[in-house]
Amino acid sequence: MKKHLVVLTGAGMSAESGISTFRDSNGLWENYDVMQVASIEGWHADRELVLQFYNLRRSQLKDVQPNEGHLILAELEQDFDVSIITQNVDNLHERAGSSSVLHLHGELTKACSSNNKNLVTEIGYNEIHLGDKASDGSQLRPFIVWFGEAVPMIEKAAKIVDSADILLIIGTSLQVYPAAGLVDYAGPETPIYLIDPKEVSNKPGITVIKKGACEGMKIFKEKMKFENF
Q: Of the four, 95, 133, 162, 183, which is 20 to 30 A from 191 by CA?
């Protein structure tokens, strides 16, 4: 029976594919103030600006490719039962071939009703404009969990982490809750690995691989060949 490898990924996972992270630029995201374009207050203040921002991000996503870190994660399904929990809204894990991906913060290639986030529509890389309606007649909005909104998938994610034989964390600061609290659901005997080029954790018991996603995943893959869990 394959071991259950649970992987929690953040912005650093996709950074090497060319997707920028707002935390590296003083709260600016593609030169936008993050609270203007990634909060429920920003949506209520200027829907057109928010739609424009996510249309741009969707267009950029179309032109980027999964990096070697994404591809190695997909390859690990040959040897492990891999569950990915991602804070990222891109589709690079899926495009790399990973088969079990839970998106905590929504997905760029989907839209939903402004009144009911359960009314979800696949839009691919197409734009959303003012006046585009969901099936309930409300304005379509990006299917994104913004600051100020609940994270509906967090309980499911916690159950997945609780069932992990091995926990791997890639490219996340472990500072933003509720996602940062997921590591606490790992069992006391569960080995935890963290891949990040920066100093992001002082939690005891975590094996840190201080590399970016691509180089770090190569090292992790080699480690897994010799570990005996």
A: 95
